Amino acid sequence: MERTTNNLDWTLNGEPKIRDGRYGPVFLAMDTKTGQLLSAEQLEFDRATLEAAVSQLAQKFVVDSDGHNLIRYLGCHTKGEHTYLVAEHVNGSSLTEMIRSYGPIPAHLVRSIVRSLLTGLDWLHAHGSYTKVLLDPDYIFVDQQGAAKIDIPVLDPVVAGCLPLPASLALPELGLGQGGPQKANVWLLGVVVAHMLSGEAKLAVDYTSAASLGAGLISCPGSAVGMVLPEHVVKLLLEEPLAFDFVRKCLTVKVAGRPGISKLQTHAFLSAS
Hints:
By secondary structure, the chain is an alpha+beta fold. The chain is about 40% helix and about 15% strand.
């Protein structure tokens, strides 16, 4: 179900930004009717881009993410001289920040996060307006109870001038000309799981290495786990056979042979104790 939020009454916290977002600095805000904390991302665009972005947002409906593990957006609103993209606030940190701060994430918590991500991806892939979402650990947020939510890009990256996710440049789909975002997100989920279990926040370090890797994957016959992940990360994953099998299947090069979201939801790794 989707709904608009033109009647939102909110106030902006005067404190410094809480983080950097896709489109500009993010500040804490509050719904003055309910007291619910919100996030307000200041859109730092030139005038022409801002007008295009606001026009695009005006045509979108808010994601009603209850039960879908997605951050819910509450629309585009102006305060003073600035325009903000307002969303629900997650009292926690991004998955990337979590890994940088704490290192490897325990397997039981990884399973919980992955189940949440699969629920969110399953919902997104069923809604045509959001099929271009690519999973990015910088925009997966984990709250203080360990629950994960996906922060989806609600602006067209061309309009917003956003660079693509480096890991997405290594997607075999780019070289093979196959598949859509559903299977691309399965590939990226495998990389995200490797991030969490290894405690390494960045595995594809830059655009050049990611693009070079993507070109080399075209001739790979099966899983690219040994090409995508460093040797020491592969050895670490092998200590958890079910986790290794999950990642290995996610990193299947041929799109037709890569499992779908529903198949992964029943993988033995997610039900292990």
